[in-house]
Amino acid sequence: MSAAPTSETKPAPPPVETLTVKVDDRRVTVPKLSPDHTGKLVPTTMIQACFAAGTMVPHYCYHPKLPVAGNCRMCLVEFGTPALGPDRKPILNPDGTPKITKSPRPAIACATPISPGMEIYCSTPSVKQMREGVLESLLINHPLDCPICDQAGECKLQEYSVDYGQSASRFVEAKVHKPKRIDLGPRIVFDAERCILCTRCIRFTRDVAGDDALGIVNRGSYNTISTFPGQPFDNNYTLNTVDLCPVGALTSKDFRFQMRVWFLKETKSLCTSCATGCNVTVGSRENRVYRYEPRENEAVNGPWMCDAGRLHYKWINREDRLKEVRVRGEKSTWTAALQEIAGKLKSAPKGSVAIVASARQTNEELFLLKKLATRLEAITDSVPRLGRKDALLLDADKNPNTNGARLNGMCFTEVGINLSKIAAGIESGQIKTLLVFGENLLQHGVRADELAAAEITSETVQKHGLTAELLSRLETLIVSDILPGPTTLLAHYLLPGCAHVEKRGTFTNTKGRVQKFMKAIEPPGDARPEWEFLLELVQSVAGREDLRTLEGLFNRMAREVPAFQGLTWAGLGDTGTTVEI
Amino acid sequence: MVERVIRRIRPIRRITQQMIVERKKLSLWERLYLPAVIGGFKVTLRLFFRKKVTLQYPEQRWMVPDGYRGAPYLVKDQEGNTKCVSCQLCEFICPPKAIKIIPPGPAAQLADRPNAEKMPLEFEINMLRCIFCGYCQEVCPEEAIFLLKDWSHVGTHRAEMVYHKEKLLALGGTHRGLQKWKHKLEEAGNQENFPVKP
Ligand code: SF4
Ligand code: SF4
Ligand code: SF4
Ligand code: SF4
Ligand code: FES
User: Fold this and answer.
1) Ligand 4, pocket-test mutation among B145, B168, B169, most atoms within 8 A of CB
2) Do both A52 and A190 map to the same domain?
3) Domain span at residue B163?
4) If you placed Cys at B98, which of A212, A419, B130, B185 could pair as Cys (CB 3.0 to 4.6 Å)?
């Protein structure tokens, strides 16, 4: 036994120290220390112990990912600790249980650390009374705008008032009126009357987004949230304060008065605006997407997402979406077009086909394209899309699935390196057939104005020079896209594809996390998910395979592509799995 | 293949056979036919000399009692403003989904009234779907929709039976109720100036 076992070279993590407390007669064991919003270990609080015991404690200002403020008092609970005798030993009751001294005063559960043997009481008559009192005080000057308030339906003030409040108001005096419809910044409207001054928005923008933009001004019942005079509240994360705000004080200008939230169907999905792959919930109704909201995923985005990604959904509902299969400009059908394409590809000599895939396609689609490319011995690549990066979430790579394209072998470490080779191939007449997926080749794939010189990874990207003149030399140009563009105009075969909210699939993010997204709405017109028609195409070009469903396709990919080894569609769950990249 | 189908059908046949009801044997009196006809005539004669209950519709119209639930219409307040604020509760509660509201969105015109912030861009009630249950009136927090006494709805095609906002408002007339948004604004105006505006 001389070989040192490699797995034991790492020291085992130290055993987690735990405490046992009682929440409403239920005993729970929780770690003594828990991570705070920065991940530092701090003493576990009563509210965390209560949540661990499955007891709901109403709270406004507490948020697990923000520093604790303890200002709303909604989370007041009663508690007791074991009584100690003069010898510092617990005094025992006659039946042998430790004697508990109930604290004479309540405590806020969100900021009070637990101690061994503590008992927390969340449902005593006085706790009930305290909650009623806090709610009554919050509602004293509240305008009760619910019919015109965007928050209605997901408002914590409404919810807690129903669950814990009184049924009628005793307040007969005139309410203090505060300013309404304040323009806080380019994306946020603020209603001072509705604000309950929980300071979640202030803490978020100061401690998470790193932009100390908001604060409280005035005194007493005139307290209100404000920016610095003349400074708009404008960073790439402002809309997270709309999610955080427990009431309708901060509302999104984009979503304002668009749809009541209770009508929105929620679909688990991903943001496609950069390679980070933030998890989102798509809110849609009657085939229209109304909003994206971040969906919590500890391994990717936590509970946040950036404004740019959140607002990048409007093109999905655009009127000029591609809705028809077109063969040389004429409307056609899927069957006819796919048959023709399959015939052309089958008879194409080896090496005369090139495929430009998109790093906006799903892993499954790229896998199918790779199968096609292998069969046709085609030269392949994808188009890079680079932009600004920031310290929190935003990634410089604006393609959601660059790693998926790499792992499937459709492009290489330096994305776009083959594009100039393809251009040269067309020029020399060697490449006669080109398949393009979701990319406008004439735009070089990169928006020069968005590029900071330092972030250009490759000179070739700028210089590959695929021009309309070159594309018109092709014998067959097959284009699948979602929106019309210069390349789709040149296509001999135009296949309308789907936005990601219209299909299912998986993306591999910048850190190699494979995550799946679900279908929220139906595609318009004849548009079909790319994987569906690609599967048909692969089957008619490269021979039958027993694949019909997306799940099957993913599992097949996981078996055949080494990087995805061991993954299953079901095993991905809602938050995905990380693979080696 | 055929056997499999037969195996499936057999139990069904067995059940249908059990369900056949035997026809009852009629007595002589019942088979005579005429007594039943005479019985029918008797009813006709009795009602012929009673007070008439039918109306000469459409010249004569039925006066419906109070509390009758006719067609739901939108109302305006005493100053001629749209009362509905597009909260969409009626759309939500409506059992047959007869109501369709298009909210104004951020860019559209704000409400007629200064403080109410919004009103529907479009409000449709499909009178062919409506079951006149009155839930919309009951749920409305703004007293903006009422079931009036209209009970006769005619149209020459389906699209005509979808009443749009303008039509609903015109038919609904005025409702003199609380003007809560106006009162809020007045109350705010009477208060001392807000120290520092955000
Ligand atoms: S914040 Fe909540 S309680 Fe207040 S008006 Fe809006 S929905 Fe109603
Ligand atoms: S605006 Fe919302 S999040 Fe900010 S303090 Fe007021 S209630 Fe809290
Ligand atoms: S009366 Fe009933 S069915 Fe008719 S619109 Fe109102 S809620 Fe819908
Ligand atoms: S009629 Fe009443 S319930 Fe319906 S949207 Fe308008 S205000 Fe809301
Ligand atoms: S949640 Fe504890 S004081 Fe606000």
Assistant:
1) B145
2) no
3) 72-184
4) B130
Half-sphere exposure of A324 (CA within 13 A, CB side): 9
CA distance to A9, A516, A557, per residue, from A519 (Å): 45, 10, 20
CA angle (A274 as vertex; A460, A204 as ends), nearest 5: 140
Number of domains composing chain B: 1
A248 CA → ligand 2 middle, Å: 8
Element (H, E) at A26: strand A26-31
Chain segment A505-558, per-residue pLDDT in tens: 999 999 999 999 999 999 999 999 999 999 999 999 988 778 889 999 999 999
Q: Which residues line ligand 5 (CB under 6 A)?
A: A 59-62, 70-75, 108, 110
Q: Mutate which of A141, A145, A148, A172 to test chain B, going by most B C-beta atoms within 10 A?
A: A148
pLDDT over 80 at A233, yes or no: yes
Q: Is the model's pLDDT at A442 over the cut of 80?
A: no
- Asked whether B112 and B140 are in contact (CB, 8 A), the reply is no
Q: Is A251 helix (H, G, I), strand (E, B) or coil?
A: strand
Q: Residue A180: helix, strand or coil by DSSP?
A: coil
Q: For residue A25, what are the domain limits?
A: 18-123
B188/A177 Cβ within 8 A: yes
**CA A474, CA A491: separation in Å to the nearest integer?**
10
Test A192 with B198 for CB contact under 8 angstroms.
Answer: yes
- Smallest Cβ–Cβ distance between A257 and the set B106, B142, B197 belongs to B106
State residue B28's pLDDT score: 87
Same domain (yes/no): A352, A428 = yes
Give contacts of B84 with chain A, Cβ < 8 Å.
none
Query: CB–CB of A190/A150 below 8 Å?
Result: no
Residue A284 domain flag:
no
Distance between CA atoms of A553 and A281, rounded to whole angstroms?
Answer: 24
Cβ–Cβ under 8 Å, residues A499 and A316: yes
Q: Whole-angstrom Cα distance, residue A414 to residue A461?
A: 10
Specify the residue with its C-alpha closest to ligand 4, atom 2. Answer: B140
Q: Which amino acid is at A229?
A: P
> Which ligand has the minimum distance to the alpha carbon of residue A241?
2
- The answer to whether A292 and A313 have CB atoms below 8 angstroms apart is yes
Inside any domain, residue B46: no
CA distance A503 to A496: 13
Using alpha carbons, select from A253, A308, A309 the residue that is nearest to residue A280.
A309
